[in-house]
Write a structure and sequence with these properties.
Blueprint (H helix, E strand, L loop, with lengths): L2 E9 L5 E5 L3 E3 L8 E7 L1 H5 L4 E10 L13 E12 L11 H10 L3 E6 L9 E3 L11 E10 L12 E9 L11 E8 L2 E11 L3 E3 L4 E9 L7 E12 L6 E11 L10 E8 L13 E3 L26 E12 L6 E11 L21 E7 L21
Parallel strand pairs: 3-10, 13-20
Antiparallel strand pairs: 1-2, 1-21, 2-4, 4-7, 5-6, 5-9, 8-9, 8-18, 9-10, 11-12, 12-14, 14-17, 15-16, 15-19, 19-20
Amino acid sequence: MVYNFKVFKKCAPNGKVTLYMGKRDFVDHVSGVEPIDGIVVLDDEYIRDNRKVFGQIVCSFRYGREEDEVMGLNFQKELCLASEQIYPRPEKSDKEQTKLQERLLKKLGSNAIPFTFNISPNAPSSVTLQQGEDDNGDPCGVSYYVKIFAGESETDRTHRRSTVTLGIRKIQFAPTKQGQQPCTLVRKDFMLSPGELELEVTLDKQLYLHGERIGVNICIRNNSNKMVKKIKAMVQQGVDVVLFQNGSYRNTVASLETSEGCPIQPGSSLQKVMYLTPLLSSNKQRRGIALDGQIKRQDQCLASTTLLAQPDQRDAFGVIISYAVKVKLFLGALGGELSAELPFVLMHPKVKLFQLKLFCIHDKYDECSFFSFFLQRPPNSPAPRLRSSMPTARPT
């Protein structure tokens, strides 16, 4: 039987430090974050010279455009969330190794060294703010990367030739259980006019997956002497950059406007369902739209809702994402408007991270390489065929 593990590999420019990781997405379960583990392989020269090698988990927060960094200004902060000496070990590690680490240690030999980092569950999730058409440089948002380097201390200035960095993401998946069905009722009365205008809005559920259609149930009861001339429903994405006091804003990522059934005369009522689907494809090139943290060779989508254990425990360098459906009734120039909002959760479903597929893509050191290691392969068994679009690689 053949067990294939998808492994990410990246080499330092001098070829003497190599990083192997089994995945680049680490799940935040609100109560805790998955350990970040991998393998570092050192060159024989580093082993003989007993060179010190350190590992770090770095959170990078960019809160301004790179092209605006003039006269010494810098709109980027980097926080080291975890750091330790990988080689030589100051003391024997008692951390339990994963199955992938155990098999990689057997595969890669005595120069392979395992590592495991743990980060706080309060650390912000990976989020990217979409750039405009004319923007250059790195986008604003929160990103993470694993940094392995050779030096004299953890605070030593790193040299590019002996440093390897690999981008990772801290993500959240949708809860397994649905919450209460969102529902709200708002009323508006008018000066010098009897009666009220009632608007009741209900969503069919609280939790939606990306790409799923949102059904907005609208019930209007007009007990006033005003007329409802138009109805508009929209999905708004709330972005809260915690670092700034006035860093909150909203983006409309889906909207629908209709006059069907209007005008709603005094004493009459209307009940209808409007469907909205928030997608990134309809919001391309719009500056400020929040997206999920990006890794090369992956398609982007709208950012998922940020789940917090407690609302007041927000990291100062985080970006909090929320979603709400807003329904507006237009009553004309003198009547004004009546609006109602309902928050909901938009996330990805939990997927199986273990994939029995064989990939082999080899790039230069500034990219990643994907390798599959053949484990417990029976003798004289034929090797599986690679995809024709991929370069051929012979397993060792």
